[in-house]
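step 4 of 6: structure.
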Amino acid sequence: MGTVNAAAPRPMRSDAQRNYDRILEVASAAFAEKGVLTSLDDIACRAGVGPGTLYRHFPSRDCLIAAALGESLGRLDALAGRLKASDDPGAALDEWLLAVANHLRTYDNLPESIAEAFRTEDSPLRASCRPLTETTSLLVRRAKEAGAIRADVEPLDIFALVSSVAWASQRRGDSDAGLRRMLALATTGIR
Amino acid sequence: MGTVNAAAPRPMRSDAQRNYDRILEVASAAFAEKGVLTSLDDIACRAGVGPGTLYRHFPSRDCLIAAALGESLGRLDALAGRLKASDDPGAALDEWLLAVANHLRTYDNLPESIAEAFRTEDSPLRASCRPLTETTSLLVRRAKEAGAIRADVEPLDIFALVSSVAWASQRRGDSDAGLRRMLALATTGIR
DNA sequence: ACCTGAACACCGTTCAAGT
DNA sequence: ACCTGAACACCGTTCAAGT
């Protein structure tokens, strides 16, 4: 479930597939428990494989993080589909930005890792954000056309704003309501 | 210059003082060059002391960071004095928040370290922010009384907002103008 | 083709031995 | 009183040897 590349070039050997799945499962649990900076050795160990096997399947930490985000990305994709069909562009954008902020909070320290990934061209974690930024651009354009937000704000600025709110609310340990409040406060300026 | 504790209990032995100064000097340079997460061993080595000596003077990384921020904190303190005497509370708050954001950007990864420090009660780095949050509270109160900003925003929320903007603009490698723009965008909601 | 785990480099932190 | 640096634990990453 949730393979990032839907078009896999060739099937894995069955033992390799088992290892892949097991590593991903353990990694998701570890990220959820201790954040994305948790020890990779520890993940390999808990998955019952050597560190080399983990590196073979996921050449970098970002690779593993991107894979572990599969489920959340799937949910966002479904939401994007619905919101693109909405007839209230302003409300659609609001709902979308909240969902993106929550996605960025999926794991502790994820906002930092993603922001870092945006500084390198070919990061897999950055690639995983591609659908997010594209949908954001689209919904921002619609909201502008509907006059719901200012015409002079760039989608990337909005994405940065949402990232920063996600970061701050995660660092403060905010509740869902806290995130909502701060996001509303920070995005007033785009209207 | 810029000792955090102005009331030192007793003078250091002269060789200890020399080491202290040298470590702080090297650390400031290293933080400026590679960010606050740079290797402490490396700092000790460049300062010509053993790692134990560094730990004796600065028991934690946060201690060393707080000490290295002395100069910037001094400048902020001077600015605070001037702004408290201003007769335009709205403009004073704006200028202050920009200065705080710039302070938080002094070193790479500083916003993260400070946000983390706020999660522990007795962190020296958190203590170093005490004057900042107090001045912020005062200027926020004045701005409210003058009707320059909304009455229902908490000073701590504003501090969080400024931190998050500092974080994002640092991650994006924004220029001074970029920071200004994003700060203005993010703080529109408080008015 | 894939896995294993030893090996290396690096870092934070402590502490016994020195002066 | 302070410094030194060896020592330990831990982690990321690679790679030669296996199956």
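step 5 of 6: annotate
 - Chain A has eleven helices and no strands.
 - Chain A has a mean pLDDT of 93.
step 6 of 6: archive
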